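REQUEST FORM: STRUCTURE PREDICTION
Request ID: SP-0412
Submitted by: Lab K.M.
Chain count: 1
Length (residues): 433
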Amino acid sequence: MESIKLDYSKVLSFVGEKEISAQQEKAIKALKSLKNGTCKGSDFLGWLDLPVQITENELERISSCTDRLREQTDVVVIIGIGGSYLGAKAVIEAMSGSFDVYSGTRVVFAGNNVSEDYLYELQAFLKDKKFGICVISKSGTTTEPAVAFRLLKDQLIEQEGVAVSRERIVAITDEKKGALRAMADKEEYETFVIPDNVGGRYSVLTPVGLLPVALAGLDIRSLVKGAVDMWSCMKESDAKLAVTYASVRNALYEKGYVIEITVNFNPKLHYVAEWWKQLYGESEGKESKGIFPASVDFTTDLHSMGQYIQEGRRNLFETVLSIEKTKYRVQVPCDAHDLDKLNYLAGKRVDEVNKMAELGTQLAHVEGGVPNMRVIIPELTEYYLGQLFYFYEMACAISGGILGVNAFDQPGVEAYKNNMFMLLGKPGYEKRS
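STATUS: Completed
RESULT:
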């Protein structure tokens, strides 16, 4: 099978190979510290060899659980926030039809916000449905998912009774500790473990990501195989792909390009970019350092953000997720009257139009002072998403090492929580100011 590739040729007019090589030296040191476990945050390196540690027994147990839930339910609600839902959401959105009519189990998400309107509408939607719950949390006390779980658990019990609700709730949590573990043990929910040494944003290849993806009827073995093959490629090449990406983006950062925009020309990749934003934002944004991660959907956002990118402040660069092969073929038809003046496109595939929009945009933005890279994905499948996830995780860890930060913690996230708890009157937070 092919592999994803990186093309940074349209960066070289902004930073030279010498500048990139200087960052590569740092990247290689960062990679070495990852491999020997001496990097900052080394307690959270479980993702590093995770692809090859996933066993067929684990995959079978996930498949068995999801088969049971799919037989019993019309809808399964995935409750989680951050890394506890974004990876699964990315795969499901990428691999599902844009206008799918659900004849089997539908997967929806909750616990990623505390919008009262969203939760009311979700509860109303579930009122006449046979639904199940997959709740994902290491602690079980994170506010957003905990509120959603309390509401939906009560609704499920009210609609189906205690015995049925216990069969339809699955918990993905810590192996031994935490509120959700205690509740799962007490209520005898089926459980899957989030490994202690894998942080949330690196957890897409644990049951956190695999179980929801399987519930959606997608191929988790192919997803894992893609990650395994990328792991092998990284091992054989001293992580050349990840080292190069981390080095180029940090060379740009040193030149004042402090914002990276991930660009797609296929709306199915929208949540892949959302997953990427969390991975890089939480990993690098520390100690007044880090490249700010943003994303756009082209060509849609060319008619909104395109103006700023073309002519605004020159402190950003773009990384385009470029899919080589589409799933379907659609040709532009010929029109006898040609009032829209599109007959010059007649007979061309829509994907050719899209590819020329991609190239034309790249050329225009480079000419306008925006460095551009391309991550080239052979086609949009679970297999290549597995490759992409592992590539980005490795590159992120290396990039954090270049910056000298701990790429595996998120201490800044606690600030909003502490203020919220104080304002809501949570015991123990009254004296905070």
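NOTES: Strands lie at 5-7, 75-79, 106-110, 131-136, 169-173, 190-193, 259-264, 292-297, 316-325, 372-379.
Reviewed by: T.R.
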